[in-house]
Amino acid sequence: MAKNNSMIKNIKLTKPNSMEYYVDISTPKAKRKFIERCKRVIRSSFEYKEYIKFLKDNVGLDSCVFWSNVIGGNKKRVSIHMHHEPFTLEDYVRVVIKRYEEEGIALNDLMIAEEVLRLHYENLVGLVPVSKTAHQLIHNTEKLFVPLNMVYGNYGKFLEKYDKYIELLADEDDYDLYAKLEKKMEQTTNLTDESFDAIKKQFTYLEIEGQEDLEKVDVPTNTNLVA
Asked: β-strands 127-131, 80-84: how paired?
């Protein structure tokens, strides 16, 4: 009978050092990177996508507030974007970060994203459904303004709930959400027809020298076109 010469060795491992998750926002550049990371976590999350879907499917926020005939849907190629108004997604992230700093809570992008998402689900975030074109006009130009009466969501309660941190954000970081809101309230009060010139149809007529009217050109229906 063959002998079993196998040996068992016990190897003792020392306890691994605990790793602490630390976020440094001591410089403007570092803070900017952290804010952008929080925003990416929010926008890419399942919870955010489901909330937007719920608003479109159940609340009726599936058409552009400026062009009501522009409607999104699963079988349509039109995409309806959800625009944050009167405060941006970054505004909410900055306020929550300020709360963490004031309360002495360690900064964590996942936890901050979770709190901002909870604000969405509690209906404390202002949102407006807009078409892709309108969204680009709002963000990239000053030609299109969203009146406050078009906003869905009780952002007023958000101000009440986070008033302390919003005030600190204004005093310590010179980032004033109340001033921002006052400006938008004034713009909403002073709306005129010209405020929506950017989304009005404009027609351009060509005046051709020596020709008073444009002539209709008949195209034969049986013409074979070769590409």
From this structure: antiparallel
